[in-house]
Write a structure and sequence with these properties.
Strand content: 25-35%
Number of helices: 10
CATH superfamily: Alpha/Beta hydrolase fold, catalytic domain
Helix content: 25-40%
Shape: globular
Structural class: alpha/beta
């Protein structure tokens, strides 16, 4: 009974208020609209939500931001949950929030018991198809297509960065690590992938679902596949981007008195595709940010939130400075 209750809680863990289908409520009370669309892919009807800010103009190419929900999460709630709405309006960002099969993404893990993994759903091609549809419906800048996601969505971000690098300018995984099968596959070749995909990464050391040190992802007693450690994930991504400079490590002050943030920057990368890791000591399985909704479930279930670090702001600052370079470099072997 406890397991069932926990699963229901985590399936609905994106708690920001949804006033009615197709809308969400901003913190100032204003109602902002999202539209629901669908497309056929691999014989299935796949859905996605789109938010077009009032500042969007079809005369100017707009950045596209893809928001990937976590396992059991809802696509339509991602915009409110992450707090990207004000930034979308300010910077003219078009938002795409696709939905996984049965609320899960096939991020590369195996033996999770979820349909997306067990049926080997091709979510990479689905998202590629959704991007293509967005490019036909809106004036999208092909050099500014970005992906961020939480948990299962974070792991899917890594997979897109590996398997769809020609479309993705940069990724921002939050509280998710590289699925072990993808890490093992990459380690067999250790080749920098063209084009390089910059990454800004956020993980909590006290994450009770996705272990900071790697290993089995779990929900209570249910095993959900394995992931690389956060350190291994960042190192693999830096090698994947051809980064050669010695990592720069610094401490970032935050207002949360019991939490410490260590920032590691991997530089000297192909096309300046930096890899930046924020390791948050004491944080659990949460999206860092000042909003009360960051602690979407009690700390005893998901660990503590970090309110002193605004991941949403940092992600967009990183994305703005890491548009995909038009010139593609040749693949090179990593020593």
């Amino acid at each position: 009974m406890l397991l069932f209750f926990m699963v229901i809680l985590l399936w609905t863990f994106f708690v920001p208020a949804i006033s009615q289908p197709g809308t969400f409520t901003r913190s100032n009370g204003a109602i902002m609209k999202q539209q629901r669309f669908s497309l056929m892919h691999d014989g299935m009807e796949r859905t996605y939500f789109v938010h077009v800010p009032e500042s969007y103009s079809p005369s100017a190419p707009a950045p596209l931001l893809i928001l990937l929900h976590g396992g059991g999460g809802l696509a339509r709630r991602m915009l409110a949950f992450t707090g990207f709405a004000p930034l979308a309006e300010k910077h003219g960002i078009v938002i795409l929030a696709p939905a996984g099969v049965d609320r899960h993404w096939n991020d590369g893990r195996i033996k999770t018991g979820y349909r997306a993994h067990d049926d080997n759903v091709n979510d990479v091609e689905f998202i590629a198809a959704a991007i293509k549809k967005m490019e036909s419906d809106y004036k999208i800048d092909p050099n500014r297509i970005f992906v961020t996601g939480i948990s299962n969505g974070a792991m899917m971000s890594y997979r897109l960065g590996l398997e769809l690098p020609e479309k993705i300018a940069a990724i921002a995984p939050v509280v998710g690590s590289l699925p072990e099968p993808l890490g093992v596959q990459w380690n067999k070749t250790k080749r920098a992938i063209n084009p390089a995909v910059p990454a800004i990464i956020f993980n909590g050391t006290d994450d009770p679902l996705v272990p900071f040190g790697g290993g089995e992802v779990h929900l209570v007693r249910k095993k959900l596949g394995t992931v690389m450690s956060v350190a291994e994930t960042a190192q693999i991504w830096a090698a994947r981007n051809g980064c050669t400079a010695k990592p720069k490590v610094s401490s970032i002050p935050v207002s949360d008195s019991e939490m410490k943030v260590t920032k590691t920057v991997f530089g000297g990368c192909s096309n300046d595709a930096d890899v930046v890791l924020y390791a948050i000591e004491g944080m659990g399985h949460t999206w860092p940010g000042p909003e009360p909704g960051a602690q979407y479930l009690p700390a005893r279930l998901i660990g503590r939130a970090c309110h002193g670090l605004n991941a949403t702001e940092l992600i967009w600052q990183f994305f703005e400075s890491h548009s995909r370079a038009a010139k593609k470099e040749s693949l090179k072997q990593v020593d």
